[in-house]
Amino acid sequence: MGKRLRSSWLGLMLLLFLTAQAPAKLALLLEEPYGTFGYVNPTGHAAIYLSDVCAASPTELRPCKPGEYGVVLSRYYHVAGYDWLAIPLIPYLYAVDRVSEVPATADRAGELTLRDAWRREHLRDLVPDARDGGPPQGDWIQLVGGLYDRKIYAFEVETTAQQDESLIETFNDKSNRSHFNLLFHNCADFSRGLVDLYYPGSVRRSFTADLGMTTPKQLAKDLVHYAGRHEELDLEIFVLPQVEGSIRRSDHIDGVAEAILRKKYVIPIAFLQPYCAAGFAVTYLATGRFNPNKNAVPLDRADVVKSLVDQGPPVQQEGVRSPLIVQLRSHMTMAKQTVEGK
Description:
Strand order of the largest sheet: 6-5-2-1-7-8-9
Number of helices: 13
C-alpha cells in the first residue's frame, strides 16, 4: 500500500477520529466546485456529516449501531423527487462499501464504474437505469464518490445523543419532497437548517457578501465564529484532499461577491455601473473574506490508514479506546501542532 494510498485514504482518518470520541459529532462539509458548472458558479456544495446517525434507507434515519460510521445528509437537484437523501460516509466519499475497496488512484472511467456499481446495488429504486440499461444522467452522481472529484473541508463540532434523537424524529416525520431552488432553497440552505436544529442562530445567510443567498463558505465562516464563542463545541477543522489520479483537480470555493471579483465578472459591471462594482469590492473586503485552510488539519497519515485497513472498523466498549484510536489521536495531535507552528 505505502505512499500511493496517502490521498485516497485520507477521509477515512476523519471517519475514525469522529467515531472514536465519546461525544457525537456533526461536521459541516464544505466541498470545492468542479467541472463546467463549478467554474461558472464556484460556490461549491454543502453537506452535513453526523457520526451517530445512520441511514435505515436513503430517505429514513436511525441511530447508528456499534462499528458504523454515520451518515452524510444533503439536498440535491431533482434526484427521485426527494428534498434530501442520506448516504453512509464511506460510499459518500469513495462509492464503495468497504475500506479495502478504496482505490489508491482514480481516473474518470474508474470513477464512473464505481459509482454505477454502487447505484445498481443500493439506489436502483431511486435512480433507475437509463433506457439503454446504463447509468442515467443527473445530479445523482453527487451522492457517492465525492473525493474523486473534489477536495472537502470538514468543520466538526460536538453534539449530544438527545440532539441526534430529535433530528432523527424530525426528519423521519416531515415531508421529504423536493422544492429545490438554486438561489434560495439550495444545498447550503438545507445545511443551514440542519445546523440550526442543533445550534439555533449559529449560521445564517449573508445579505451583503452573498446578496441574500446562502452559500457553503458563509456557513463555514459562521460556524467557526459561533464555535469561537462556545468553546464547549470543541471545533476541529480537517482537510480531505481529492483522490490522486488523472481527474481534474477541483477549484477554489467562493462566496458570491468573491466570485464576482475572482471570475472577472466585475469588469462588465464596472463598465456599466462603476459604483456597483466598487460596492462588490468593499463588501468582499469587509465581510466576505474567509480562508477554510486556516487552522485546518490535513489528514495525510498513511500508516494510520493502513492500520485501519488491517484491523477493520473500531468497536469501542464504553470508556475504553483501542490502541488504534490512541495511535490516531497521537498523530492528529502531531499534525495540529505542525499546523499551529506554521
